[in-house]
Every structure is written in structure tokens, then in C-alpha cells.
Amino acid sequence: MDANVDGPMPSWASGRFGDDVAGLRLAIQMGLLDTESAMLESHLAGRSKHKFAAGAARMTNQYDRIAEHVLDLGIPGTELIKPGTFYELVLVHNTILCPYRVESVDGFEPGDKWPKKLSLVMRELFALTDAPAPRWIADPLVQVEGQELLLRRSLADLAQRDPRPGLVLIPYEMNMSGLQRAWWGQANLLDDAGNLQWVTEKSLLTTGAESRIYAVPNQRAGDNFASGDLPEVALSTRSEAARATGTPPQSETEYEAFVSAAEDNEH
Asked: Dmax over Cα atoms in the chain, in whole Å?
């Protein structure tokens, strides 16, 4: 898939990133494409019917690859933020860039709710950053459903900056077919359940996907995919109820459970 750099630049992004907006948009696109490559290559190298290696590669690379491409732009003031979990986030133009995966729904934009359980790290990131509309929490010590939310030291220091950093969300769709679509925009966190209020347009970063072809070494003449007899492949059966309700195959269920558990463990 090629980076989609066509189309008008969203006004909110131009206002926030100024003359660097085009370079940043391309850097985010390339970071997501590198994440796709890392995910698919890990799955091939793992030689497993399960997708755990791919899920782990996507989770870590989504942050590292975007940060790498943004840092390469050499924009003054760009830095890495350590929120106290397994990843780092890049801050550019006093704005934290936060990618996260959403489920693919044909024809629809990302929803108005965080796609999985809202982790403590994400609550704190929403708490410390400036919000374009009224906030649902105070700073830096807040009350959420009877529980106090105290920012960890690395994030509390950010909350003391003047002006406070902004937060740009980067929801994207990615599966074993590759990167499908990606957006960027700003939103408020409305409550502890993860409901969001988008206060800018959800602007497309990428659209569409194409198949990737991986070279197979030491192929002999005539040994192409169309030669020889077709192999007998054992197919697993699924119940009529599972097919009717759209219940995913067991391998996909295990993969999603693995990804969800890892991403939610951010305390």
C-alpha cells in the first residue's frame, strides 16, 4: 500500500503543526506502513497458524515506527515521552501523537468510544493534555467515579508545562491483509467508560490496501503456484449458529484476546 498524501490538508492540523504539517502527515503514514511490514514479516517468520507474533509486533511498532519517522524530520522541540508503560510516544509541536487500532467496519469512520477497555495510561494522557472543549476531569489530581486519579511522575511533569501539550489521536484499521485506513484528529474523553467527543474532523491519512508479494528463495523453473497437483487441505468446520452470528474462528478469537490483554495491561 502506498502512502496517500493527496487531498487538502485539514485546517485543524495546519493550525496546530504549521509549516511542518505536510511532513508530519507523511511521517505518520510511513510509520503505519512500517508497522504493517513488521506485523506481516513477524507472522511469516513465526511459522505459526496463530497470530500472536503479529499482534505483538503491531502493538510495539505502532509507537516506535511513527516516533522514528517523526524524529527524522528534525523539527525543533520534538521529544520522546515515557508514560511508564512498554512504549514511548512522540511529542512534536507540543502535541503527543497517540496511535491505536480500531476494528474494520466498511464505510464507517472510527466510533465515538475507545475501542477497548480504557487503560490507566490513556486516562492520564487525556487528563494532562489541553482539551479543545470542556474537560471531564481536573488536574493533576482528579476524581473519577469515587476514585482518585493521580498522574504518574513522568506525566505529571508534562501537565505542568505552559502551555499544556495537546493530544492527537491516530485511529487505524489493520489486519492480516495489511493497513486498511487511518485517520487523525482530536477528541475529548467524556467519561471513564471511554466515550469520546470528536472536536475536529476525523481526517483520512490513508485509504485502501493492496496485496504484498513476498519473494520465495531458490525457486526452480516450473515450481510456480500453478504447477503440480492441488494439495488436500483439511478444513475445520463451524456450526451453523457460529456462521449465522458472525462468531470468528477460534484462532482469531485467541489472537484478539491476546492483543486485548496486552494492550489493557498498562498500569
From this structure: 70
